[in-house]
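Action item from last week, closing it out:
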Amino acid sequence: MGIGREIFGDALPVAERYAAFLAQAGVERGLIGPREADRLWERHLVNCAVVSTAIPEDAEVVDIGSGAGLPGIVLAIVRPDLRITLLEPLLRRTTFLTECVELLDLRNVEVRRARAEDVTKEFSVDVATARAVAPLERLATWALPLLRPGGELLALKGERAAAELEEAETVLKRFGVRSTELLQVGHGMVDPPTTLVRVVAGRAEVVGRRQRAPRRAKGSRKRSS
């Protein structure tokens, strides 16, 4: 909880209400496993909250396959400057997410029931996030069409992050991405640090606004695609 207070600051009570809702309704409805209830903070909330350090100010964000709201709900709590759409195709999950948004009074969040591939003409955002949704090779085909030129996919990944990035190389080249990067965020706050794959979108049919440069996280490795 000490780390939680450091990360969430004045929003800690909101994060606590979300954790309590996850531990009860989230488990009852099968959105998280029963064994996860005792380790929600370090494994889920803090793990997702530190992703906020890689997102520019005032960004428009779409959280693909939001599920129980990880990382989308957490990012909305810790970063009220973000405008976040929780994109989720399953009704029982969008019902849960809508209840979360109302319970926590998150005015910077919209819940949308849809698949990413079905709304490509409706979205043009700065950042797309995803956690435990699909391998990067498939996730990129859903996320990149939703991004403005220079927008970023931030995919939370585990030990296979580097391997997934290599496996997705052909797909990423086909989309004309500007660059790819492996980075770790949350050093000293979560152990192990959260691993992200950052993919920067290239040109697109929709011309977006000028992008702000995100803060560089410690431990990052960048390469051109």
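Closing note: The helical segments are 2-8, 12-28, 40-49, 72-78, 91-104, 136-143, 161-167, 169-174.
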